[in-house]
Amino acid sequence: MSLFDTDLLYISLYYKTVVEGKNKRIVIYDDEKGETLFKDSENGVEIIETEWKNISWEDNNQIVEYSTEKGEDGISRGINLAKYRDAVIKRCLKKWNLTYKEQLVPVNNDTINKLPLSILTKLFQKFEKMSDYSDNDLGK
């Protein structure tokens, strides 16, 4: 396999929408529990299956440039983490199995912006974990 192959990362997320009176909340399950609950279709657990592009050097540089806050003097004040997370998600999330009214929902900035924060945050965390390398991965 070449380093220039652009393999996708496949990330799944198990969740359930719970209605409590007039309110709805989302319960997110870890993979093991979610997979077990998902097998029983009567409990309402659903799965989001997503595909993400690996971040290249160029992608990373553009994301960091976009999310770096600068003062009036042009000096960097650090990374705006919300902008960083937003840029990573919108650049790297390529596909999902989400539907609305039995139609596949396209992946674009507008539809990403409409998703619940808890879902996107957990997907982002999983993406970062899959993109990170431990000392063992690096042969240390």
Largest sheet: 4 strands, antiparallel
Radius of gyration (Å): 18 Å
How far the N terminus sits from the C terminus, by CA atoms, comes to: 22 Å
Strand order of the largest sheet: 2-1-3-6
Helix-strand sequence: EEHEHEEHEEEHH
Q: Name the poorly predicted regions.
A: 134-140
Average pLDDT: 88
Shape: globular
Q: DSSP strand (E) fraction? A: 25-35%
The number of domains is 1
Give the proportion of residues in helices.
Answer: 25-40%
Number of helices: 5
- How many extended strands? 8
Briefly note the structural class of the backbone.
alpha+beta
Description of the structure:
The structure is a single chain. The chain is of the alpha+beta class. The protein has one domain (8-131). The protein is built from 5 helices and 8 strands. It has helices at 31-39, 57-67, 81-92, 109-114, 117-131, and strands spanning 8-20, 23-29, 46-53, 68-70, 76-79, 93-96, 99-100, 103-104. The strands form 3 sheets. Strands 2-1-3-6 form a 4-stranded antiparallel sheet. Strands 4-5 form a two-stranded antiparallel ribbon. The protein has a two-stranded antiparallel ribbon with strand order 7-8. Strand 7 and strand 8 form a beta hairpin. Helix 2 (57-67) runs antiparallel to helix 3. The chain is globular. It starts with 7 loop residues before the first strand and ends in a 9-residue tail after the last helix.
